[in-house]
Amino acid sequence: MDQEITRWINAPAGNYAALDMAMVAITRYGVPLLVLLVVVQWWGRQERPHLRHTCIAAGLSFLVGLGFNQIVLLFVQRVRPYDAGISHLIIERSADWSFPSDHSTASFAIAAAFLLHGFKGRGSALLIAALAVGLSRVYVGTHYVTDVLGGAATGIVAAMLVCLLYREGTRADRLVTGIL
């Protein structure tokens, strides 16, 4: 089923120039743009200490999620779908294993951090962006659907862990959120 859904999402790749350009742009620039959106919010005026705490939590979630992925990669070495003849690749080849998707991990970690800290509007917008990043990774041929789901899971778990361990209002939090 994973292979069939992956084929279905990847099927239009290479046939529609405008859609290809959009998906390649999302896959290349989606995560950096999400990071930039988090950085820019540092100077937000509403709920400044809470927003800054959430920005730090999003960054930590991003890093913890990618750390989880490195541990998973020690045990799971899944071949990329283009190497298995499942997808048609329209971007450059990746050097690492397919599962889980680092792009999805990073995107969903950021979105989950904002949602878990009560920023429903911003978190929902970031979640839509994370879904677009995940979809783009399958469309361009570099991931299976379950790679994206696995990346989303590690990102969300990382955000939950950071939410539990990085407490707002602690001495360290006040020190970091008071910068600039």
TrEMBL record:
Residues annotated as transmembrane: 22-43, 55-77, 123-142, 148-166
SMART domains cross-referenced by the UniProt entry: acidPPc
InterPro entries found in the cross-reference section: PAP2/HPO (IPR000326), PAP2/HPO_sf (IPR036938)
Claim: Flavoprotein is one of the keywords in the record: no
Domain Phosphatidic acid phosphatase type 2/haloperoxidase: 54-163
Highest taxon above the source species: Bacteria
Keywords: Membrane, Transmembrane, Transmembrane helix
Pfam families: PAP2
Protein species of origin: Aquamicrobium soli
Keyword presence, Transit peptide: no
Protein known as: Phosphatase PAP2 family protein
